[in-house]
């Protein structure tokens, strides 16, 4: 049946809801190949229809349907991957872990860089003067200035903006200003305890 | 935060909509179609004969139906007798068995402008309206163990609604416990770590 490979590509994304599977270059190539074959057959039938044999028109319609279906599968595959990459910027920050980077193809990596740049430019523009508003922080309304955090992994030394150096050992508890820890908590290095 | 929401009105990029339209429906070809005999797997002909009954994937149907190349036989769960079952008591019906995408496919079928379209649409709305109350109720008041049994009879749309209800209940509980101000690890980061941990330990 037509467009089986296309649906397989899309199903790859459906199965992997919370991570990005490696870019399936092979799958994309196969779908494009099927589209090319369908298109060539359609061209042949369409030109014979123009020449007078009108019985091939129905086949043209069906193949065209299959072409549109393949196109939709490819577009959805690419679009949904890009949406997930955008989400990655908000969850992981502007630097992605290397194993996730390995799953992204080159144009998608370029998209990520440009998206990060766009986001940074926007955040800079809504501040006043040289102060830029970091939208990825304070996702929940803050309740206090200092928070109690526990370190989950051996991180080493961490320097806060005021210059204090904090040694983050596994399971150590610290009382730190909220703004300094938000990024580390989001990345899972620190854990907010109440 | 950019978020890809589940949309139940079919959106061109919706993964779910693409996958659900792969379901096979029974169609009759009103005209002969040369060279595409491979669509009919029971016959061994290079061409499709006029009048042949073929199981086609649903995504082909809207165009072919509009151009009068095929006539669709309404999938059995949307026919009169099944609609009557729903009218009698929709709450006990196992909609997951009737098609995991009962409402979505029903809407696609009804939009084809068939004789039964209006009745199908009315039946879909009535069914959802009748079942909704129990779904809402269950999503707010059930424990983890009962959930599996409850959602077994729900179709995908209802399962999404159930999930939303549960999430809202959990958020409320979190707020009552004053944990809503607690900063959490980003969801993607947490699942990434879990997966890495699983890979290393295996």
Automatic annotation (TrEMBL), chain A:
Main localization of the protein described in the UniProt heading: nucleus
Subunit structure: Component of the GINS complex.
Entries under InterPro entries matching the protein: GINS_A (IPR021151), GINS_bundle-like_dom_sf (IPR036224), GINS_Psf1 (IPR005339), PSF1_C (IPR056783)
This protein's GO CC annotations: GINS complex
GO biological process, one term: DNA strand elongation involved in mitotic DNA replication
Biological function: Required for correct functioning of the GINS complex, a complex that plays an essential role in the initiation of DNA replication, and progression of DNA replication forks. GINS complex is a core component of CDC45-MCM-GINS (CMG) helicase, the molecular machine that unwinds template DNA during replication, and around which the replisome is built.
SUPFAM superfamilies per UniProt: GINS helical bundle-like
GINS subunit domain span: 35-126
Pfam family, one: PSF1_C
Organism: Daphnia pulex
Keywords tagged on the record: Chromosome, DNA replication, Nucleus
Ranges where the DNA replication complex GINS protein PSF1 C-terminal domain occurs: 143-193
Record's protein name: DNA replication complex GINS protein PSF1
Source lineage: Eukaryota, Metazoa, Ecdysozoa, Arthropoda, Crustacea
Subcellular location: Chromosome; Nucleus
Family: Belongs to the GINS1/PSF1 family.
From TrEMBL, chain B:
Alphabetized UniProt keyword annotations: DNA replication, Nucleus
Localization in the cell: Nucleus
Domain GINS subunit: start-end pairs: 78-176
Record InterPro entries: GINS_A (IPR021151), GINS_bundle-like_dom_sf (IPR036224), GINS_Psf3 (IPR010492), GINS_Psf3_sf (IPR038437), PSF3_N (IPR055221)
Gene3D superfamilies per UniProt: 1.20.58.2050
GO annotation terms (biological process): DNA replication
Domain named DNA replication complex GINS protein PSF3 N-terminal: residues: 13-64
Domain of life: Eukaryota
Pfam families cross-referenced by the UniProt entry: PSF3_N, Sld5
Cellular component GO terms held in the UniProt record: GINS complex
Record bears the keyword Nucleus: yes
Entry function: The GINS complex plays an essential role in the initiation of DNA replication.
UniProt family annotation: Belongs to the GINS3/PSF3 family.
Summary of subunit composition and partner proteins: Component of the GINS complex.
PANTHER family from the UniProt entry: DNA REPLICATION COMPLEX GINS PROTEIN PSF3 (PTHR22768:SF0)
Name used for this protein in its record: DNA replication complex GINS protein PSF3
Source organism of the structure: Daphnia pulex (Water flea)
């Amino acid at each position: 049946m037509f467009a089986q490979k296309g649906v397989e590509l899309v199903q790859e994304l459906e199965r992997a809801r919370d991570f990005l599977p490696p870019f399936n270059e092979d799958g994309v190539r196969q779908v494009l190949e099927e589209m090319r074959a369908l298109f060539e057959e359609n061209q042949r039938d369409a030109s014979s229809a123009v020449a007078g044999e009108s019985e091939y028109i129905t086949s043209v319609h069906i193949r065209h349907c299959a072409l549109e279906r393949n196109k939709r599968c490819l577009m959805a595959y690419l679009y949904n991957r890009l949406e997930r990459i955008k989400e990655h910027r908000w969850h992981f920050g502007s630097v992605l872990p290397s194993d996730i980077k390995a799953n992204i193809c080159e144009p998608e990596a370029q998209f990520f860089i440009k998206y990060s740049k766009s986001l940074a430019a926007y955040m800079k523009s809504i501040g006043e003067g040289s102060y830029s508003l970091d939208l990825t922080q304070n996702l929940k309304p803050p309740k206090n200035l200092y928070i109690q955090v526990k370190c989950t992994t051996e991180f080493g030394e961490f320097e806060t903006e005021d210059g204090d150096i904090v040694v983050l050992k596994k399971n150590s508890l610290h009382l730190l200003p909220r703004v300094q820890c938000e990024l580390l908590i989001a990345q899972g290095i620190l854990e907010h305890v109440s | 935060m950019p978020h890809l929401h589940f949309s139940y009105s079919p959106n061109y990029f919706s993964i779910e909509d693409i996958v659900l339209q792969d379901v096979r429906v029974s169609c009759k070809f009103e005209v002969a179609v040369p060279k595409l005999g491979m669509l009919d797997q029971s016959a061994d002909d290079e061409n499709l004969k006029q009048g042949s009954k073929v199981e086609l994937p649903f995504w082909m149907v809207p165009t072919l139906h509009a151009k009068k190349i095929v006539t669709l036989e309404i999938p059995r769960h949307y026919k009169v007798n099944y609609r009557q079952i729903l009218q009698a008591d929709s709450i006990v019906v196992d909609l997951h068995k009737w098609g995991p995408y009962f409402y979505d496919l029903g809407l696609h079928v009804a939009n084809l402008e068939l004789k039964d379209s209006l009745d199908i649409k009315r039946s879909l709305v009535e069914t959802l309206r009748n079942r909704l109350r129990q779904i809402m109720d269950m999503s707010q008041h059930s424990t983890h163990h009962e959930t599996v049994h409850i959602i077994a009879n729900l179709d995908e749309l209802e399962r999404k609604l159930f999930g939303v209800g549960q999430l809202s209940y959990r958020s409320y509980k979190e707020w009552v416990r004053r944990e809503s101000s607690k900063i959490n690890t980003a969801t993607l980061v947490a699942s990434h770590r879990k997966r890495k941990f699983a890979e290393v330990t295996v």
